[in-house]
Amino acid sequence: xxxxxxxxxxxxxxxxxxxxxxxxxxxxxxxxxxxxxxxxxxxxxxxxxxxxxxxxxxxxxxxxxxxxxxxxxxxxxxxxxxxxxxxxxxxxxxxxxxxxxxxxxxxxxxxxxxxxxxxxxxxxxxxxxxxxxxxxxxxxxxxxxxxxxxxxxxxxxxxxxxxxxxxxxxxxxxxxxxxxxxxxxxxxxxxxxxxxxxxxxxxxxxxxxxxxxxxxxxxxxxxxxxxxxxxxxxxxxxxxxxxxxxxxxxxxxxxxxxxxxxxxxxxxxxxxxxxxxxxxxxx
Length: 283
Fold this sequence. Notes:
CATH class of the largest domain: Alpha Beta
CATH topology of the largest domain: D-amino Acid Aminotransferase, Chain A, domain 2
Number of strands: 15
Number of domains: 2
Largest sheet: 9 strands, mixed
Strand content: 25-35%
CATH architecture of the largest domain: Alpha-Beta Barrel
Helix content: 25-40%
Mean pLDDT: 94
Distance between the termini: 33 Å
Shape: globular
Order of helices and strands: EEHEEHHEEEHEEEEHEHEEEH
CATH superfamily of the largest domain: D-amino Acid Aminotransferase, subunit A, domain 2
Number of helices: 7
Low-confidence stretches: none
């Protein structure tokens, strides 16, 4: 498998960064994961915008734009003989001395990883599992898609079958937050609900797509702080993730849901599928 690293396309066996990179030493780095449809990375502008917001907070200077990524995606698809693929765009702070640095990072390591897409279907259902691990609070004002992923790893370790299950974190106050690798939605009384950013969740790109699509289609929605009982009272539940798209939930504890047969899920996944075919840039 070939990847892009600092202006070069190399085999993953030949790719390397310095052990003095502060992304390795102190976790200073951010990334975005996305997938292509017919060779085009869906919602790439939104991913790049969120990446730059994270880099700005991390004090990392990187000149990355969508056109540059589009070109690298094309090259990697061809080099790896893939029609479509999973991509991870990673920006690590770059080389520095041992010790915490407050000056800006001017020479980060920019890496675009790729691998084949997982063999999953958009109607593959998952069971939602409550986690004992509490969702930690962001180290800054908001959660970044950064190198700090231990909390999610601890949560995922609790799952018996990660392919068929997704864990749901609660905050220390007992509010629903998000999954180990997903945002969470539920539908009740003809209204859509999802935890607010105040719970410390990652503002997922597919989460934002769902909210924008709901607004355009006049589907009422609400964000805020909610207790676990809301899930047990819901009519439908689903998850969002840029690689897995929209994932229907069929069970949470003793409560069963319609899963992929849910009325709202059917409507949203059809809209999402249509959007990936017809739209190459932002909503």
